[in-house]
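Backbone-to-sequence.
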């Protein structure tokens, strides 16, 4: 497994931006596809975005398209989630996750390593 630590969450106003970071250690970072998920109170964990091992391929949930950007720096063992034009409905705990799979899975159970999460709160 790989150890993951998220950071960058906080309380912002609607329309603001945040950049989340996820630092990895353990298993060679570049061998992992990486994903971002979120979970709001009372709701199931949902897919947000994923990046291939090199970062050349990415996919997004419809809710994230056009506003969020996933990127990675394999030299720094870090994956990022740039979130722009935030909305109150983006409020959730955000998790990064890692998988050996070549594909870019959107199901949480396809990932084998998870961070502890970082809270994002968007006030209206």
């Amino acid at each position: 497994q790989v150890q993951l630590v998220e950071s960058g969450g906080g309380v912002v106003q609607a329309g603001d931006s945040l950049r989340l970071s996820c630092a990895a250690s353990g298993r060679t970072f570049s061998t992992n596809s990486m994903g971002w998920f979120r979970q709001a109170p009372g709701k199931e964990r949902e897919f947000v975005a994923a990046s291939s091992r090199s970062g050349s391929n990415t996919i997004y949930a419809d809710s994230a398209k056009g506003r969020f950007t996933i990127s990675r720096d394999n030299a720094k063992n870090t994956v990022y989630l740039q979130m722009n034009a935030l909305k109150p409905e983006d409020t959730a705990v955000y998790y990064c996750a890692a998988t050996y799979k070549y594909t870019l899975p959107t199901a949480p159970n396809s990932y084998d390593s998870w961070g502890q999460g970082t809270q994002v709160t968007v006030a209206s």
